[in-house]
Amino acid sequence: MAVDRVEFSEALRLLLGDNERAARILAGQPEAWTPSHVVDVPQDLWDGLNDCRNAVVHARGSMYGILRKVNFDDGPVSRPEMLSAIEAVTSSQAALERMEIALVEMVSTLEAAADAEASGEVL
Q: What is the pLDDT of residues 90-115, one digit of tens each?
């Protein structure tokens, strides 16, 4: 059955039915449940994500303005417009690099803590 042709009531029945089966299985076999852990994400990482999102939005807007001018002969593209677009792209790349560094550091710290816990060490 195509996804776009599923009636609401049928989709609801499938979701509830499948979830009920999963709940019954897990009730009998709790060890089958995939363990999850809450991870406290550092504020620097959230800030980096926000910086990246803002830079990408700005870059997209700059590029849209330039492309609109080029495609519709809406006047020449000025040097400041080009520099602004390049700066926005560069800023996006820098924000992504900062996030990558922060993620690697966070994952390394979490792995070290998990290894220490598994071996009975105290950090």
A: 888 888 888 888 888 888 888 788 77
